[in-house]
Amino acid sequence: MTDSLEYNPFAYAMHEDPYPTYARLRDEEPVYQNEKLGFWALSRFDDVLAGYRDWAAFTSTGGIALEEVGTDSAPSMIGMDPPDQTALRKLVVRAFTPTRVGALEPRVRRLTTGFLDQVVEAGECDLIERFAALLPSDVISTLLGAPQEVHSDLRIWTETLMHREDGVAKPPEAANQAAKSLIDYFGVLIEEKRKQPADDLVSALLEAELDGRRLADLEILGFCFLLISGGNETTEKLIANTVHQLARHPDQRRALLDDPSRIPDAVEESLRFRSPTQYMVRTTLRDVSLRDRTIPAGHKVMLLIGAANHDERQFDAPERFDIARKMERHLAFGFGVHFCLGARLARLEARVAMEEIHQRLPDYRVDESGVSVVHAGNVAGLATLPIRFSPSAPIGV
């Protein structure tokens, strides 16, 4: 490794374009060690895939980020391994079956058109502030059973929970306070649903049984944290990243406008090209020998999803954004026992968002001078996305 090769996941300027650094990691030191920050990193597709597959060597129980914030009292399924993780996953996966997710499409489309109705006449907006941050928040908050009047609070608390200062691993105090606010609110919501169940996920979890016992409130709280963070932040970034990349690649956007049936392919390419989750962390349970290096037991290992999804060994011309790309798989939603529960819902929201945006704002232009990136640990994407377009009339809901 050359002296200048250093990967710092807390240097948020990298989030806009970390891929040159990722390429050097894959080529020069695919099993990378950062002694200063105390982690290893795997960057090649096959190695990241193996890290996901082999949970007996790479455990999730040591935490899935280099830093953890405010959730020690809310154990999450994402921080478990089989068999415990498998049993809990079977309970919550029922909310994300093809039938149940498909039934959400009319609501997702109503929300989408409603949010767009509020901006189409102006001819400009920050697409994240006025749309991309709002749609996933409303969908996942509704799925959990939270009333409309708290959706904004949940979104703001989640954004604050994820925020990090540039170059600093330790979460700011505001993130800890946001975690406390979420814990307090979900505790209240659980009690309300226990007294008055409804057709929502929290009520279903209160009724569910695992090996003959009901779930503890802390286990349900862990589900709430997992779903609100994944459902809000990563889907928001997916929508914004897709619009941004289509604006940057007008030929691809033209192809999509000419044939809207290609929108799902565009979403998949966006997931690969700018993965909203750039890494997940595992902890070695034993010494792991890989590519002439040995990672000792008990060490943190970053699975660099963003790097793996740009590995030329897996993808032809990976630096090219190509909605016609044929790919067997990507790792934006993880793999195996930790494949994202909400992947189907995220794809639905992104597809509907792209359909409505490209139908109603087809000539949008991004003001690159106003684009900024988030400071949010392993979540990468845009904080602002100002666009301009030809004004039109609302269509109503």
Task: Provide the gyration radius in Å.
Answer: 21 Å
Instruction: Let me know the CATH homologous superfamily.
Output: Cytochrome P450
So, CATH architecture? Orthogonal Bundle
User: Looking at CATH, which topology would you report?
Assistant: Cytochrome p450
Strand-and-helix sequence, N→C?
Answer: HEEHEHHHEHHHHHEEHHHEEEEHHEEEE
Number of helices: 15
Q: What is the count of structural domains?
A: 1
- Tell me the fraction of residues in β-strands, as a range: 5-15%
Strand order of the largest sheet: 1-2-10-7-3
Shape: globular
Number of strands: 14
Structural class, from secondary structure content?
Answer: alpha+beta
CA-CA gap between termini? 57 Å
Helix share of residues?
40-55%
Give a written overview of the molecule.
The chain is of the alpha+beta class and 397 residues long. The protein has a single domain (12-388), classed as Cytochrome p450. It contains 15 helices and 14 strands. The chain has helices spanning 19-28, 45-53, 84-92, 98-102, 105-117, 127-132, 134-144, 151-162, 173-195, 201-207, 217-248, 250-258, 263-273, 305-308, 343-360, and strands spanning 31-34, 39-42, 58-59, 124-126, 209-210, 213-214, 279-284, 288-290, 293-295, 300-304, 365-366, 372-373, 382-384, 386-388. It starts with 18 loop residues before the first helix and ends in a 9-residue tail after the last strand.
